[in-house]
Each structure stands twice: as structure tokens, then as C-alpha cells.
Design goal:
Family: Belongs to the CCR4/nocturin family.
Keywords: Exonuclease, Hydrolase, Magnesium, Metal-binding, Mitochondrion, mRNA processing, Nuclease, Phosphoprotein, Transit peptide
Strand content: 25-35%
Shape: elongated
Strand order of the largest sheet: 1-5-4-3-9-8-6-7
Subcellular location: Mitochondrion matrix
Protein name: 2',5'-phosphodiesterase 12
Number of helices: 16
Number of strands: 34
Helix content: 10-25%
Main location: mitochondrion
Length: 592
């Protein structure tokens, strides 16, 4: 139950300032924030005293008198220490006594409706909203379970022309109700000390925006930004937070490969059409390896492979598509939680994520919250489903005929993410959205066929059991060309025994079987572009959005970047394009 110094979250990215101006709050008193939930044994009391943040963790059933005494003793001690250090400065000799006695500890009282709260009342009942905590001559207004930011961070890298999306999490409040004010530093502070230490609060600031997301302009280059955010729940407000960017705004790359594409997606698709995106965004765990820097992408400037830089581009690219459904592959867990979720949330999208255990990355599916609600999830690890779910027993039996192939299949951690969404404009109307990233090896066609066999069997089962009649939208990086067995399985419903992919990895792993998709022929909505992946040593079409043409029709396909745009910096990724893949975007007419 000691007084804990105020905890700071997000210090790695942001310097958080806790200057509290009494006028900012309710015009008269400093706030004392109390967090007290039924069923939790402890409550926390947070307030500012003598210039530092105090945070007390106490039992809910402890008598309030004990806490008040603790505050009083803590204050007396710190004042005593301050006096001692002053005496030392004055040069009091050791052993010398001074006539002054220790002052009595300051009076600490808790009042509600003008009445003093008895010392015997338990904490849980004593700290009521609107009570007044009196510490000496300072009065605090008790705010119980007021809207509070539990996470508040600015991104590490700010580029002009690219949206700055704070990572915010609010308790007892609603992000949609919160108030935001952005400021720009008046004069850049160029001293090395300033760069190291916390920002000086007297550096003047000019207001530059009042939205949750701020897009810095070229005039902001070289200046830091400050965000003042007030957590709210309807009309009820909590203590504001101020975040100052760790660094200054830097120049953005100018023209990006997706800028021209945004001209086609300025507005959201009109119901009943749905805009769908699939995009392998290149996981940081792969982009930052020595192999990537020296062998795979030697043509890419090293700074353009860094995560903060690429995230700036990815967030702007995705926001500008105004999509209803976004399927991403190669999403790092940290990127999903700290970067994409807060950014896309600000643009009206919610998301779900499924990690691939061995790789620390996985697929993520986002959907527009004004259009869809998530009804259920049916994600599987393909290798685990093959061996444990009886619906795959026939396929398992065939694969088990070749030990080498079976062993390889079971070592893969490939996942299939399956989300059933309901159309909010027409309740009862549902769609099954699947998202996967199949095995990557150029000679792995046979393994990919088995993986897709498991995926289609699972999808067929989910739709018939959970949402009969719902159309399937199947997105992903299938690592398969239009000539592959996987493409044939989806577009023609079956793959014959003699397909060359069955022996793609040589005779010892050869495994021939007839495979059926269990669906009518599916259509590749964006057809077959010349390439969706363009790196130094390879280019080809690997990514797809497959639909059921009897339920959905393609309304428009957003053109891919021109070959000139893709090759301006030799290949992908580049300073103007954040991944080695290109996003596919299309508008689908889904007739009610």
C-alpha cells in the first residue's frame, strides 16, 4: 500500500507531460482519480502532490482513516526531507541542534456533501464520485471511475503527408467521444540536451488540428507535435493527457505507388457493393534480416525497410482505400496491436488477428464497423486440423501414404482465418471471409494443394453448419501462380491425379490424388495480373480474392500501379512502396 510514483506507459515513443492546470478540470480543484471495480479486492487512488504523481493501491475493505493517515505521514516525511536538505545547504554543523520542532503532519480529510467521511468507512464506500479530498490547504475533486486513458502513445516516426494515429485505449470511456487538440512547436529546439531530455513546457505551441488523426504538412518538418487528449464518456470527461512526440516531423517520400490508386477509392463503396482488399504487408521479422537487406532486397534503401517508415506508408495506403473488408498477411503481432488496430480503428475498421505460433506473424482481417458485425470466428491451423478433425480423414489417409510429404505438412504452422460477418444494413445477410498465406517454397506445389484441400473442406463445413447459403470471399497470398494446381482447384473445382504439382518437390515426396474443392467454380475477382509480387529475382501473380460468381459480381477492379511505378526504384519494396507485394482491391456487388 505504499505511495507509488505515477506509472508512465509508452515512454519508449512519447514523453508524457503531467502538468495539471486546475482550470482545465472543473474550474476549482485538482482531480484525484479513483479506480474501484466491484469484485476486485483493491482500488487505486491517483493524484498530484508536491509536484509528483502519487498512486496508492489499497484494499477496498480497509478503513479509509488508514489511507488518510498514510497520505499525511507521507507528506510530513517528504517535507521533513526537504527541510533537512535545506539545512544542509545552510551549513548546519553535524551534531548541532536547531530549536525548531518537527511540524505536525498536515490534516488530511475526506468529505462528501460537506460532511466529513468517518475514518471507519471502508475505502470502497468512502471514495465516492464528487467527494472532496483535503490535503493541508489543497482540495481535490474525487473522480471515481472517470474516463481514463490506460494507453496513450504517439508513433515513433512522423512523416509529412502521412497520418499520425495515436495509440489510445480508454477505460470507462468511449474513443469516439474523446476530444483531441494537436499543437506544433513554435521553434524547433536544436540543442542536443533538448533532444535527450523531456520537452520544455514553455516552448510555445500553436494549435494545428482537432481530429483524432492528424496529417502533418511540409510546414511541420523539423518541429515536434503535441497532442492533448481528453477521455470522455458522452458528456463526462476525465483527466486530460498531453503527449509530445519523441522526435520532429520528417519529410515524407513524396509520390507513392498507391497515390494514383486512391483516386479510384475516394469514397466508400455504396451498399450493397462491398470493397475488399487483400495485401501481404511484409512482416518486420522478415524485412529486417541480413538476408533481406543483402540478398532479397539489396536495391531497397535500408531506412525504407525499417518498420516505423513502412508502417507510415501502410497506414496511409490502407486508410485511402476506404475498404469494407481488408485481409492482410504477414502481420507482426506488435504491428497489429500497437499500429494497425489504433490506426484503422480511427478510420472506422475493427480487426481480428491469428498468430502463426512459430513465426510470430499471421493473418489479420479488418471490417468496417458501420457495415458489418463479426458473428463468429472459425480459425484453424491447417496441419492440426488435418490430423485431428475427422472431416479431413480421407485426405489424411491419402497424404499418409507418403511419409516424407506428411512430415513436411505437419511441420508447417500455416493458418486459415475464417470470419463470419453480418451485414448491418440487412440483418440475417451474412458472408464468410477467409484469409490465408500458404507455404512459400517454389517447389512446394504439392504441399500447397494439400493445404488448400484442408482449407476448402473446412470452409464447406463452416458454411453448411454455421451460415448456410452465405457466400465465400477467400483472400490471401496463395504463393500459387494461375497455372498452379491450387488455382485450378478453386477455379475448376478439382485437380486431377496427373497434375504436375503432385510431384513438384521430386519423386520421393510425390503424392497423386484426385482433389475436389466442394464448391462451385470460384472466380478470381481481380483476374490474373501479370504480377502481385515484384522483387529483384522474381515476379509473378501470387495473391487473390476469390468469390462465388452466383452470389457476387465484380463491379470494379482498382488498377494496379503501372510497371513504370513499380520499377522506378528497381523493384519492391522501395522508398515509395512498403511491401514486396501489391495490394489487390475490388468492389463486389453483393445483391440482396
Amino acid at each position: 500500500g505504499a505511495l507509488l510514483p505515477g506509472r508512465r506507459r509508452g515512454e519508449k515513443h512519447t514523453v508524457e507531460t503531467s502538468k495539471r492546470d486546475a482550470d482545465d478540470w472543473d474550474g476549482t480543484m485538482e482531480p484525484a482519480a479513483v479506480r474501484c471495480l466491484p469484485g476486485e479486492p483493491k482500488l487505486t487512488i491517483s493524484f498530484r502532490l508536491d509536484g509528483s504523481n502519487k498512486r496508492m493501491l489499497r484494499d477496498q475493505d480497509e478503513p479509509v482513516g488508514k489511507v488518510l493517515a498514510r497520505i499525511s505521514n507521507g507528506l510530513a516525511k517528504s517535507q521533513g526531507k526537504a527541510k533537512k536538505s535545506k539545512k544542509k545547504k545552510k551549513g548546519t554543523q553535524p551534531g548541532q541542534t536547531t530549536p525548531q520542532q518537527e511540524p505536525p503532519p498536515p490534516a488530511v480529510k475526506l468529505r462528501f456533501d460537506g460532511e466529513e467521511v468517518a475514518d471507519t468507512v471502508p475505502n470502497g464506500a468512502a471514495w465516492r464520485d464528487g467527494a472532496v479530498l483535503q490535503v493541508g490547504d489543497v482540495a481535490y475533486s474525487v473522480q471515481r471511475n472517470a474516463p481514463t486513458f490506460v494507453t496513450a502513445e504517439l508513433p515513433a516516426s512522423l512523416l509529412s503527408g502521412f497520418p499520425v494515429c495515436p495509440n489510445l485505449e480508454v477505460e470507462f470511456g468511449n474513443l469516439q467521444d474523446c476530444e483531441f487538440t494537436w499543437f506544433k512547436e513554435n521553434a524547433p529546439d536544436a540543442s542536443p540536451e533538448a533532444a535527450e531530455g523531456p520537452p520544455s513546457q514553455d516552448a510555445g505551441w500553436t494549435e494545428v488540428g482537432r481530429r483524432r488523426v492528424h496529417v502533418p504538412s511540409n510546414h511541420d518538418i523539423g518541429f515536434r507535435l503535441k497532442l492533448r487528449c481528453t477521455p470522455k464518456d458522452g458528456g463526462r470527461g476525465g483527466a486530460p493527457k498531453e503527449l509530445v512526440s519523441a522526435g520532429a516531423v520528417e519529410a515524407g517520400p513524396g509520390v507513392c505507388t498507391f497515390d494514383n490508386r486512391h483516386a479510384y477509392t475516394l469514397k466508400e463503396a455504396e451498399w450493397p457493393a462491398v470493397r475488399v482488399v487483400t495485401y501481404n504487408i511484409l512482416a518486420d521479422v522478415y524485412a529486417q534480416t541480413e538476408l533481406s537487406k543483402t540478398v532479397l532486397y539489396p536495391y531497397c534503401a535500408p531506412y525504407a525497410l525499417q518498420l516505423d517508415y513502412r508502417q507510415n506508408l501502410i497506414k496511409k495506403e490502407l486508410a485511402g482505400y476506404n475498404a469494407d473488408i481488408i485481409c492482410l498477411q504477414e502481420v507482426d503481432k506488435g504491428v497489429f496491436v500497437d499500429s494497425l488496430t489504433p490506426a484503422l480503428d480511427a478510420f472506422g475498421l475493427e480487426g481480428v488477428f491469428r498468430i502463426k505460433e512459430k513465426q510470430h506473424e499471421g493473418p489479420a482481417t479488418f471490417y468496417r464497423r458501420s457495415r458489418f458485425k463479426l458473428l463468429s470466428r472459425h480459425d484453424i491451423v491447417l496441419s492440426e486440423a488435418l490430423t485431428s478433425d475427422p472431416i479431413h480423414s480421407t485426405l489424411l489417409e491419402k497424404v499418409s501414404a507418403n511419409r516424407a510429404l506428411k512430415g513436411k505438412m505437419l511441420r508447417r504452422s500455416t493458418v486459415l482465418q475464417v470470419s463470419v460477418l453480418e451485414d448491418l444494413h440487412k440483418p440475417g445477410r451474412q458472408v464468410c471471409v477467409a484469409n490465408t498465406h500458404l507455404y512459400w517454397h517454389p517447389k512446394g506445389g504439392n504441399l500447397r494443394l494439400v493445404q488448400m484441400g484442408v482449407a476448402m473442406q473446412h470452409l464447406s463445413h463452416v458454411i453448411s453448419e454455421v451460415t448456410p447459403g452465405a457466400p465465400l470471399v477467400f483472400c490471401g497470398d496463395f504463393n500459387s501462380s494461375p497455372h498452379s494446381g491450387v488455382f485450378q482447384l478453386l477455379s475448376e473445382t478439382e485437380v486431377p491425379l496427373q497434375h504436375e504439382d503432385w510431384s513438384s518437390s521430386g519423386p520421393e515426396e510425390s503424392c497423386s490424388m484426385e482433389l475436389r474443392s466442394g464448391f462451385p467454380p470460384l472466380l478470381s475477382a481481380c483476374s490474373q495480373p501479370a504480377y502481385t509480387n515484384y522483387v529483384g529475382g522474381f515476379h509473378g501473380c501470387l495473391d487473390y480474392i476469390f468469390i462465388q460468381p452466383d452470389s457476387m459480381q465484380v463491379e470494379q477492379v482498382i488498377p494496379l500501379p503501372s510497371h513504370q511505378e513499380v520499377t522506378t526504384h528497381e523493384a519492391l519494396p522501395s522508398v515509395a512502396h512498403p511491401s514486396d507485394h501489391i495490394a489487390l482491391i475490388c468492389d463486389l456487388r453483393w445483391n440482396p
